[in-house]
Amino acid sequence: MTFLSEPVAIGSDLPRRDGAVKVLGTATYAYETPLENVAYLHPVQATIARGRVSGLDTSAAVALDGVLAVLTPDTAERLASTEDRELAALQDEAVDFRGQVIALVVADSSEVARHAAALVRPAYAQEEHDAELRADHDALYAPERVNPDFPTDTAEGDVAAAMAAAEVTVEQTYTTAMYHNNPMEPHATTALWDPAGEGFLTLWDSTQGVHPARATLASVFGLDEARIRVVCPYVGGGFGSKGEPHVNVVLAAMAARAVPGRPVRLALTRQQMFSLAGYRTPTIQRCALGAGRDGKLTALSIDVVEQTSRIKEFAEQTGVPSRMMYAVANRRTTHRLAALDVPVPSWMRAPGECPGMFGPEVAMDELAELLGMDPVELRIRNEPDVEPGSGKPFSSRDLVGCLREGAARFGWAERDARPGVRRSGDWLVGTGVASSTYPVHRMPRSTATIRREGDRYVAEIGAADLGTGAWTTLAQIAADALGVPVDVVEVRIGDTDYPMATVAGGSSGTATWGSAVVEAAGAFRDRFGTEPPDGAEASGDVGPLDDRYAMHAFGAQFAEAHVHVDTGEVRVPRLLGVFAAGRIINPRTARSQFIGGMTMGLSMALHENSVLDPRTGHVVNHDFAGYHIAANADVDEVEAHWLDEHDPHVNAMGSKGIGEIGIVGTAAAVSNAVWHACGVRVRDLPITLDKVLHALEDRPER
Fold this sequence. Notes:
Blueprint: H1 19-24, E1 39-45, E2 51-57, H2 59-63, E3 67-71, E4 94-95, E5 101-107, H3 110-119, E6 121-126, E7 145-146, E8 150-151, E9 154-156, H4 159-165, E10 168-176, E11 188-193, E12 201-205, H5 210-221, E13 228-231, H6 247-258, E14 264-267, H7 270-276, E15 283-291, E16 297-309, E17 330-340, H8 353-356, H9 358-371, H10 375-381, H11 399-410, E18 423-424, E19 427-439, E20 447-453, E21 456-460, H12 470-482, E22 489-492, H13 509-528, E23 537-541, E24 552-564, E25 570-580, H14 587-606, E26 612-613, E27 618-619, E28 637-642, H15 666-678, H16 690-697
């Protein structure tokens, strides 16, 4: 279905419709749902990494005034499905990772619940555990597929022969750390079973997908989906961690059933989120590049080692972007997992592309150094005509335009290629570049409804806005599809009472839900014309992607790094990104997404690192005091720009996802800028002062 005319609302710099209520504090989040006679839940967590609970003394907790229930594996209800072991809460005494929930307390107040949980005394039969990721781990294995459904390994040509014949080669190992999503709003749920005892469950949950959450809970509790309602009008961030239900949702529903007629609230503490809400696996990337003296790549390989949990596999698709980024005839990508006694990893902003572009994009910079070639020019020389691997034409691809536009805006032409020669006072100054990419996703099985209500049009779809702007952009899409002013369009989202919507993940939300809205609007126009009666209604579904084309967004990241000559302190006062991401629906919300992704990439480059002690299986810096995230003082000048890109193949709006591409490539650009500043290659994130200080001490001018 197409628009009536050239879109007007699409492309407009409209303010966020949810902005005022969030700023004023009147937006209702999951934990704040106004309900009477609320009870509170606090989990008891294991303090060993592997073994079993041999005893639980709950007497002191039960005796505490205000405690309503203490659930253990002996007293908790039996779940209908325990296939997903992450969600199989309190079904047996096994302990599979440190922090696993082994009991829970429900009380009249959150303070009493927390106090009582601390009074529960577990005894353990402890077993030897393994919580250390190593490239030489003796139990590495190849998963059947990597997230979501890519081949684990690929091979084209003869990489070994090409590397042997290459005039210039780079062979290095790069690592990224364990990262935790840490949205501002923790994972939170309010659960209520129907007081009449008819088995109807309502969840007010902070989730990136109300319908996927409902489907999961229906399976776990053995309910028809029609007997579950999930409500989520606002989300205080997720970055992927709220894309699939974690155990907190099961715990809330289980606790609410244990105290009939009373709603139960659970908000994970910041510390609990480090073991119960997913994280990005650390990666070890062995990268190899071979090229001729002209800079043309002749070989590329990336062999990835990462971890998963022993109880549930998640294989991040770290090597996948290398399969299509540059033109090279001989290519190999592999993934190997170590199943450890650790919590379950999960989605984090740009899974695969984010860590997977770090090693190869730093390796490209190292190759440019060996060739004596500008790193922007090196990337341009390896631009493919079609998608490597598949041979499909790109629906649109303007990485070259991003690199050139970014270089012009950044002042790249003034750069001295030599590292360590530019200085500003006590700071060495350098600049770096890296490419970004992210695939275009449009999920099936989303439906939208358009209805006339009085003098307004209402678009309903069970989408989720986790801060990305869906409240606003869907109204713009609906207005143009209907041919009416945007101020007469109301959007209703975040409830399973609205039509089916897929998860807000994979930068697919606008493309998927917007496509459904356009289809619904087209059906509405065809049925009722331009003067629809009050109550007129029509629905539309998402159509399939045109699989004749390879569909990706692209970008170029530029960074300026300063390294202090005495302390080794690293600062990044300037980031600039240029993106080719289809039609931009709303420049205001788009800029916010690009800048947010780049800031998160800076945080990944300089600060973030979940330090897991292999002796205990415990993330020791499990709060904001120890887990450092970029703050205002760390982020100075961040610029986001985009190219006008027309792509008629991706969807009716011509849009591509923008929520994740901003983080991709940023850490590599920062690492490359640090090398240019001081001459040190930091291949292991984060880039901390101890990794450059040794080289500074050897500088002649000292």
